[in-house]
Amino acid sequence: MRGAVLYGPRELRFEERDTPTIIKPTDAIIRMSATCVCGSDLWPYRGINPVPEPTPMGHEYCGIVEEVGSAVTSIKPGQFVIGSFFASDNSCPNCQIGYQSSCQHAEFVGTAQAPLLRVPLADGTLVTTPDVPSGEMVPSLLALSDVMGTGWFAADAANVKPGSTVVVVGDGAVGLLGVLSAKQMGAERIIAMSRHQSRQKLAREFGATDIVTERGEEGMARIKELTGGIGADSVLECVGTQESMMQAISSARKGGYVGYVGVPHGVELDGEKLFYAHVHLHGGPAPVRRYLPDLIRLVWNKKINPGKVFDLTLPLDQVAEGYRAMDERRAIKALLRPTQ
Questions:
Q1: Contact 72, 25 (CB under 8 A)
Q2: Which of 103, 263, 329, 333 has the most CB atoms around it within 10 Å of its CB?
Q3: What is the arithmetic mean of pLDDT over 145-166?
């Protein structure tokens, strides 16, 4: 089969790769209904995360089960399934308290930009939908594999409550779905920090009540102005830079919460400043598996439509254009459809 392989900075090829097969009895093979390019894929694509050798890409996936290993009991061929970027057994102590992305037996699922995918620990990783979905629903179900689950974790980690004031730092797919998550959790006021008109429009569709275009010191001052000098109850940090993290911490009220899910690059926290900030910090790789059953129900019952973050759809063999469009900020998120 052919799939995406990254050779170095901005050198992505769609080329022959080994067709995945069952390696362990706990594996499953799924035929992809859709996959996509993630904002975190841009870190190695831009050369910020070095790629020492040609690397298959992609960690967001949904599709039809083709084959399962002899030890798999809850997943069957023909079912439509969604999984997370970390395979998990869903039974170890970390999984049991809802942190499947830190499963003691976790395996990264990183070869999904291809027609077929091997998923380890299938029973613990994959969640079925009530039936095979319509084509129209597939983008929203795909979003649950990472960006919706990550946005939800950001809001959950930030302790978003009904009636609260929330700030979202970052207007990529995760930040936009953080807005949607905060809205679902009952936030009364949601301030989205964004400089891009198309993203501002989608943020408002998802529930943002205010838009702040300023960044850095000016952005922090604007948040304080909008909140009567107090700051927000909850802040979602969805970028991963030093500036975004400091902006998030400074935007929270005393006793407020910061949920951080942006993969950190060069982030360093000053212990003394953090000490006197008096905020709660919680985040990390999102335990998407924890939220999948509830998020699938919300999509299936048409309560949310996170698939709106996909503003570019391409055939899988044009994956390189998907990377370019997101790198150049011509697209929020590129959806890739394998040719069946």
A1: yes
A2: 333
A3: 98
Q: List Cβ neighbours of 143 (8 Å cut-off, separation of 6 or more).
A: 173, 177, 306, 307, 309, 310
Among 63-67, 205-209, 269-273, which is the least confidently predicted range?
269-273
Residues forming a β-bridge with 312: 334
**Environment class of 111 (CB within 10 Å of its CB; exposed 0-12, middle 13-18, buried 19+):** buried
The whole-angstrom separation of Cα 102 and Cα 280 is 21
Checking if the pLDDT of 310 tops 70, the result is yes
Mind listing the pLDDT tens digit for each residue in 207-228? 999 999 998 889 999 999 999 9
pLDDT at 340: 58
Instruction: Please answer whether residues 115 and 16 qualify as being in contact, where contact means their C-beta atoms are separated by less than 8 angstroms.
Output: no
Assess contact for 118 and 68: CB atoms under 8 A.
Answer: no
* Integer CA distances (angstroms), 215 to 138, 244, 292, in order: 35, 9, 33
Q: Which two tokens stand for residue 124?
A: 């613990």
Structure tokens at 222: 């604007």
What's the CA gap between 251 and 214, in Å, rounded? 13
Q: Is the pLDDT of residue 153 over 80?
A: yes
11-16 sheet: strands from edge to edge:
11-16, 2-8, 55-56
Cβ neighbours for 174, distance < 8 A, ≥ 6 positions apart: 39, 147, 150, 151, 154, 238, 261, 262
* Residue 61 contacts residue 84 (beta carbons within 8 Å): no
Q: What's the DSSP call for residue 25?
A: T
Confidence of residue 339 (pLDDT cuts 50, 70, 90): confident
Q: What is the pLDDT of residue 272?
A: 93
* Helix 216-226 with 242-251: angle, nearest 10 deg: 20
